Amino acid sequence: MSIYCLITWMNSGSHRKSEAEVQRLVKEVIQADNFNVEDLEGFSVRRSLRELDRGDGKGKVTFPDDWIEADITVTIPTKSREEGPKMYTIPGFHYHPLVEVIHAAFADIQASGFHLMPFKRLWKDPLDDRQERIYNELYTSNAWLEV
Fold it and tell me: Where does 71-141 have alpha helices with state H?
């Protein structure tokens, strides 16, 4: 019955659920050693996301061990040059080192579909035929073109 329920779920609602994603859901979530179906009793996506956003430590959301928690300080510009930017500290910020995220992305089966061919993107003004270079993706950068 579990397989029937899973396949029915896959084929309903959004059509963005690929076979590979459903397989990943089963392998990495449902069959994970630390997965406990009883933890989902009374589960609400909206409530869990709110608890995660609130980050006051009172919610049930926990991060895996490979996430790093740190207090970070950000500088926010103000409208006044005389006043200067204001500093704000964000306690309990969770992050994953960027290099690990990049490695994981390229190790994924979907990485073969990434657009990696470098090229220059140009925009041509329809009024005066003036061309302007557009930089909007990594593969349109000079660094990518020079590799």
Answer: 98-107
Dist CA 23 CA 3 (whole Å): 11
Q: What is the pLDDT of residues 16-31, one digit of tens each?
A: 788 888 898 898 888 9
Contact 69, 93 (CB under 8 A): yes
- SS3 (DSSP) at 60: coil
**Residue carrying the six token digits 């005066």:** 128
Please count the other Cβ atoms lying within 10 Å of the Cβ belonging to residue 26: 14
pLDDT, tens digit, 9 for 90 and up, residues 91-130? 988 888 889 888 888 888 888 888 889 999 999 999 999 9
Strand 68-76 to 131-134 pairing = unpaired
φ, ψ dihedrals at 95, nearest 5° = -150, 165
pTM: 0.42
Q: How far apart are CA 58 and CA 3, in angstroms?
A: 35
SS3 97: coil
